[in-house]
Structure formats: structure tokens, C-alpha cells
Task: structure prediction
Amino acid sequence: MPDSSGLEALFVRLYLDRHIMARLAVDLRGRDYDVVRTEDAGQDTATDEEQLAFAAKEGRTILTFNIRDFAPLHDQWQAAERPHAGIIVSQQLGSRQYGLLLARMLRLLNHFTAEQMIGNFVHLEQFK
Result:
């Protein structure tokens, strides 16, 4: 990723929910993406609302397998005109399907800028 702060602002900064495998953070960081896990941020026991608030404050798009809770949370934030840096939801994939998760994330990250993710709710499965 370029060092220029103007260009850096184009790239989605990620925040991985507690159930996302650590390997994804390692592999994305190896490709120069800015990735923080809940454990890294000391937020591992935070509620979903607190997770989204933390991600929003940090300007990070959250990736979660928890569509059941984050879809209504997104709707609540939209209704309250409360901005967030984006929510990416995915069906839960096991370690055997890790390559699929990584490939989809790379497609998404090459598709959206950080600005385009603001307030957005994206299903990772659309990036096949």
C-alpha cells in the first residue's frame, strides 16, 4: 500500500469480529492491508453494539459472520443517522473453506474504497 496518506485513505481499514479466523488478519496484513482483530483492540468481550461503535470511531469496516445481529444493528444506525465505516457479513466458513473467504475478501477490497464502504452493508457472498 502506498505511504501517501491521501492514497492510504482510499483503502478499506478492517476490523475483524471475534469469530473471524486469525489467519485472515495475518494474510491480509501480508498484502499491506490495515487489519485489527477484536483481540488486538482489547474488545473481545464487547457487545455487537460496542464492536460497531469501536469500528466506527476508528474508521474501520467490520467483518463478521453474525448477520443475525448486525443486520438489525445496521438498520438501527441508519434510522438514527449514525454513521459507521461499513459492515461486511459472510456466512460462517470453516478452515477448509479459508481460501474462499480470503479470495472473496480480496475481491471486495479491490472493489470498494474506504469512502464507498461508509454506511454500507455488504454480503461477502456477492464477491464470488
